[in-house]
Structures are given as structure tokens and as C-alpha cells.
Amino acid sequence: MAAPTSELQAQKHSGKGEGETVGIALLGFGTVGAEVFRLLGENADAFAHRIGGPAEIRGIAIQNKNKLRPGVPQELLTDDAKALVARDDIDLVVEVIGGIDFPRELVLAALNSGKSVVTANKALVAAHADELAEAADRAGVDLYFEAAVAAAIPVVGMLRRSLAGDQVERISGIVNGTTNFILDAMESTGASYDEALAEATRLGYAEADPTADVEGHDAASKAAIMASLGFHTRVKFEDVHCEGITKVTAADIAAANDAGFSIKLLAICERLQREDGSEAVNARVHPTLVPKEHPLASVSESYNAIFVEAEAAGSLMFYGNGAGGNPTASAVLGDVVGAARNIVHGGRAPGENTYANLPIADFGEVETRYHIDMEVQDRTGVLAAISTAFANNGVSLRTVRQEDGEDTARLIVVTHAAKEATLDKIVADLSELDEVKAVHSVIRLGS
Length: 447
Prior knowledge:
Elements: H1 5-14, E1 22-27, H2 31-42, H3 44-51, E2 55-61, E3 77-78, H4 81-86, E4 92-95, H5 101-112, E5 116-119, H6 122-139, E6 143-144, H7 155-162, E7 168-174, H8 177-189, H9 193-202, H10 211-214, H11 217-231, E8 241-242, H12 250-258, E9 261-273, E10 279-291, E11 303-310, E12 314-321, H13 325-345, E13 367-377, H14 382-391, E14 397-404, E15 408-415, E16 418-419, H15 420-432, E17 436-445
Parallel strand pairs: 1-2, 1-4, 2-3, 4-5, 5-6, 8-10, 10-17
Antiparallel strand pairs: 7-9, 7-11, 9-10, 11-12, 13-15, 13-16, 13-17, 14-15
Helix pairs in contact: 2-13, 5-6, 6-11, 7-11, 8-9
């Protein structure tokens, strides 16, 4: 029978004692898990000094025990993850399986039995952070997930600790390397989306099924985590407005470049001031026009970058390799050191704090500028009709650019700030005009 919660908390807060060994269960042995195992073994002495005692992997949960894994003692391998998590000699569980349902079951079992957890699982954290945090609090143990957002870039620690004394106003960033590689390739080579995706797949940047990346789901999970931490408010995956890059064309990239912008898939989390003076939170993922002079515009290939704006600290940017076995393992091991130190010496790391409990703003409340690309009839009066459609919705035009064709013209307009709900109405009105043959794309402008 498990010890009562009060007993578990007392045990964890007092620590095992200097020099005691921390027993680790490693759940998953893919690219990240294998790197965690290798680095922890090769640098065992250094980790023991950082932790205050040895850290020993005492079991590795895998699917196929018969698969050859050179350098891994066979006795460490098990296909019974539940039994491994339940063992008395396990103090810390490291979850690098991926997915949601089965990892959730394992992580909850670990936390409920008084074991701290390190996970790299963004989908799990985005979907169930509240449940996991409550379980960790009840047992008085740690839940670490630095690797869930942008791998080795220290975003989670920055929001949890470094900016804990500040008020975060906005977080925006490139948090998916696959989509950034594709958009960067389209801009630098003139390739189509399909051509750039094929190259990303050939080089290993894109999965065989790239849906989670190119449709923005991966970035949306990370946006939910960043918004929850930054605004002390529970934001879940389903609260994040999500659009991917599959509709971005080479023509869109060229038009953006001509206007002095790069197109990036951004995760944007911001604190909104409503008309009544109250605050709300919005998180969204969509292709965004970023001015060439902005630091995010220069982020190339598969790199990630997060731009944070805080009341006292001002503007901060974090940049690096946001995916891959080594960077992700680095973040996991940083968490292992933190959790293991607490197991040895006692105490807990800062946990989830959703005291602000701000309402989640509907996407229609978000205000931004828009770049709208249309095919229109090439005749007198077209611009007046289009301007009227914008004016009737209370939106003014900042710039208008026309490119003449044979029978039609291409019209690109950039608006002043307007709300998303208004934009939907404008696009519907434009589509009904005889003068407009097609609205090819609507892309939002970043700051």
C-alpha cells in the first residue's frame, strides 16, 4: 500500500541524503532516450557531483525486447513499463515515449506513488498539465518538462523561474523546425511548398507523416505550454487557434519578400486588454509576415527562436536548435539534474501556478494587420469598390499594390489594425464582389 500523501511529502522534502543514489526509470529508447542513456553513462561522475549523489538508470521500458541495442545491458530492458514505474528502487521517471494516453497513465502512476517525473512530451503536457501538476502537488514531488518546448532552448525555465518576478506581456516565436525549414527553403530557392516539403523529408527534417508539423499542431501544443506558464493561466491545446503552412505558396513568399517581409509560422501568446479594461489571454499559431529587420525574420533552416516581451525585463530573445536527439536530451538531462538534486537534498522546484486564471480570449478578439492578395478585374472602379468593402467594416488600408496581367490584375493590400472577426466579414464581402475574381491569401502581419 502506498504511503499517505502527508508521509510522501515529508519524505520528499527531507531528501534521501548526500551521496545517496537516485534510481531512474527511462521510458522509451528512441533517438532521445538513447542519447539520455549514453550521456548519463559517459558523464556519470560529473552528474554525481552536480546532483550530490549517483544517478543510475535501473530500467528501460521498450516495446521490443528482442531488438539489438548495443551497449545496453539486457537486464535493464523491459516491455512492462507499468511494473518498472511501480518498482521501489525507482525515484525518478523519465518519459520520452511520445503520444498522450499511455504516457499519461504512466506519468500519473509515477507521481501518485511519490516519484518525480521528467518528460519531453509536449502533447501530454499541453493536454493534461493541470491533472499532472495536481498529482505532483499532492505527492510533494517534481514535474519537469523543459524539453517539451524548443528542446535545449531554456524557455520553460525562463518563464518558470527567470521571469517569475516580472509580468510577461507577449511571447512569439518559431517553435517548429520542420515548418521553418520549409518556409526558409521556399524563400531562399523559390521552391514551391511541395518541393520544399520533399526536400525536408529527404533530409530528415520532416516525418513520413508531417501533419502534426505542417498543420501547426506541434507548435500549438508548445504555445499552450508557454501561455500557461507566461500568464499563470491554464491554456490547453484546444484553446489555441491553429493554422498551418500548407496553403502558403511561392507567390505569397515572393510578394512578402518584395514588401520587406519573411513568412514564418509563429506561435503567438499575448495578454489582451479588452474594451472594458479587463485582461484576457490569447494563444494562436499561424503563418505571419515578419519584418525583415525583426530578429525572428533571420531565423533560418530548422532553428527555433522565441521572443519574449516583459514589463520590466523588456524584450528578450532565445535562439537555438529546437529539435533533434542531442538538443532534446540536453534539456531532459538538465531536468534530471534538477529533479535528482531535490530527491537527494530535499525540496521542490517551482511548480505550476495558475493564480491569475485569466479568461481565454476568442480568436475574433485578436487585433492585427493583414496582407490580402486578390485577383481582380482590370478595369476602372475596381479599387473604389474594394476600398468601400473595407470602409464599410471600419478598416482602413495602409498600402495598395497592383500588378497588371492580361485580363485581370493582382491587387495586394495591407490594412491597418483590425479584429479577426472583422477580417472574416471583409473576406466574405470581397468574395461577393463582381470585381474580385478570387481572394488568394490572407496572411497576418507580425510586429
